[in-house]
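Bug: token stream looks shifted between consecutive jobs. Job 1:
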Amino acid sequence: MPSIRFVETNERIEGLEQVSEYLKTQGIVYEHWDISKLPQQLKEDYQVTPELQEAILKTFRPEIDALSEKRGYKSSDIVVLSDQTPNLEDLLTKFKDEHHHTEDEVRFIVDGEAIFTLKGPNDDTYYDVFLYPGDLISVPTNTRHWFTLTELGKVKAIRIFESKDGWVAVYDESELQKQA
């Protein structure tokens, strides 16, 4: 079940409906897809193979296509981060620096756990969005954020893009990260 933690106050919002409603006020799309249709072996496998990626994308193709048609997305792939990922720490360092994108950043959590730390567009409040299997988030264009793993240390996610270029970040100065 997703949750939100406000960085400064440590206050929390929990539950699908409450998280979805709050994120909507921030201009962020949140959906929860049926993860139970994914075969168990695809959940547990953290090897990045073309066969694994194809099988996962095929399982969620109807949802991906519906979202893509509604929001203008053009491509999708799979990202897997775990202790089996070569250069994991280097990748996480790249994701942990505050940045934004010139297109939406869409992630659907297939397995594992992730945290997006977002800077609210209206009041500059930083908050963590904890995501679990079945959770989809679309961080809007130019929203400052960063991404990391929970203590579980692994995530498998579908990434959905507006362009064929994939993940391209624009790095920003972050007062919050400077204080850390």
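Job 2, same session, no restart:
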Amino acid sequence: MDKDIILAILLEGITMDNKYFTIIILILTAAATLLCGCYPKRVGPLDPEGKQLTWEQMDLSQRKAHMRQKVLPVAADVFGTWQPERFARVDCSLCHVQGETQGIYDMPTAALPRLSGALLLGPEFDRAPETTRLKLDRLVPEMSAALGVKPFSIITRTGFGCYSCHLGPNGAMFGN
């Protein structure tokens, strides 16, 4: 069946005047703004006023503690359920290779494999589909939540995503 015919069948009998349609669009836009505008989330220790700190507000020692207590267990779970033998023990060096030895925690880092920079990670899916899917479906959203930062949006090309940790072919991408 032709796409246009299917769409016509689905829309048959559905009519909206401009006023009703405008109200729906305004409501959906307001809801999206409210849901997306809640970043950064407060995920850290309490400030003197009793409010949790955001990632950006934390100092280095608070960030290290947050990474050990909140972020590392998430990474250990994701990688451990994927390849339990290989990731039986996960520590900071999984992502921050030079962290404990040299005190370098900057991300993205050249210590992790570079990504292709291709739209929708085509070469990564061709080379390692299971790994790429795991990272997109679990690791990125769970890391984003643990850090209290907005997840990556392919539309705006901003937020926490693959290139928050990995470099692209020519270096950092998407403002990371």
